[in-house]
Design a protein that fits this description.
12 strands, 9 helices, five-stranded mixed beta sheet, about 35% helix, alpha/beta
Length: about 300
């Protein structure tokens, strides 16, 4: 069985045609239109191209920057705000007339990594996206957790935790306010997203450079900023360890390329979590930027 996986991002829409073994047959990438109807049209056209390649009408899995609420027949919590309040899934079903499943993009990433990626075979997997925003998702025994409010894994919009006394930070998050697009202040996302990392660098050093430049060490001060970032990441993820005690934490998104995370984060998690044995493994996403669209395709398992 072929299936289509589409990752709808703020700047690009990426789709794959996947076979039953998880092999990618075809990939298509287009720029994300700036309006709702243009986005629906782009996904419709992409899907028809994949159908032609497969010589079949293929089911479609969609990873989106938000959540679909079946009761209200509308999207919510999308940082691509043109989707919010829109009947996105129903509009696509009307156009495409086939099975379509939809999930948050962070959920798609962790599903991909739990099925056949960096966390394959693990009982409980928590996935983190560190990029333009901060997302999360959880898979237990191969099944995505969603929850009645579709909020499972929305770790990025918790308030940044109180800093433990034993942590050594240059500044305490409670000493200032960072506004979040969700309307609150000092969400985890405002510290651990790319913009959050840039803001921390400015506060520490008064220097304005991009998050990728900080991650690559393109400043004499970058190493100190990354020290601070990894401490912040450990404090925030210690809450996840306390609540669900995952076997594996998989990290994706642009900031997952900071290689120091995987050596320095695990002992800090053990330090800040409650009576932790340090058994939680922290790994980068095996499929990197491909995880979202692979996970969207895996919304339709091989057995159909």
């Amino acid at each position: 069985m072929y299936r289509i996986g589409i990752d709808l991002g703020g700047t690009k829409i990426e789709g794959i045609l996947m076979d039953a073994r998880g092999e990618i047959i075809e990939t298509i990438r287009v720029a994300t239109p700036g309006d709702y109807f243009g986005t629906v049209k782009a996904i419709h056209e992409m899907t028809l191209q994949f159908d032609k390649q497969a010589d079949a009408i293929c089911p479609v899995g969609l990873g989106t920057p938000g959540a679909w609420v079946a009761r209200s027949r509308a999207m919510k919590n999308c940082n691509s705000t043109v989707l919010n309040g829109k009947p996105f899934l129903h509009d696509l079903q009307r156009l495409l007339n086939r099975p379509i499943r939809i999930a948050n993009d962070a959920n798609c990433m962790v599903l991909s990594e739990a099925v056949d990626g960096a966390a394959a075979g693990a009982h409980c997997v928590f996935g983190v996206i560190l990029g333009t925003g901060v997302g999360g998702g959880c898979v237990v025994n191969g099944d995505l957790l969603a929850g009645p409010n579709l909020l499972a894994g929305e770790w990025g919009h918790n308030a940044f935790p109180r800093v433990p006394e034993e942590a050594i930070l240059a500044f305490d998050p409670k000493d200032g306010e960072r506004a979040c697009y969700c309307g609150r202040t000092n969400c985890v996302e405002t510290f651990l997203s790319g913009r959050g990392l840039e803001a921390t660098h400015i506060e520490l050093h008064g220097e304005r450079i991009s998050a990728p430049e900080i991650g690559r060490g393109e400043s004499q001060h970058a190493s100190r900023t990354v020290d601070e970032y990894i401490q912040q990441l450990a404090i925030a993820l210690a809450v996840i360890v306390n609540v669900i005690d995952p076997d594996v934490i998989v990290i994706g998104g642009g900031l997952s390329n900071i290689s120091r995370i995987y050596e320095e984060l695990p002992p800090l998690l053990q330090k800040y979590a409650f009576s932790s044995e340090g058994e939680t493994i922290v790994v980068p996403a095996k499929y990197g930027d491909s995880s979202g669209r692979r996970g969207a395709a895996w919304l339709f398992p091989s057995e159909g």
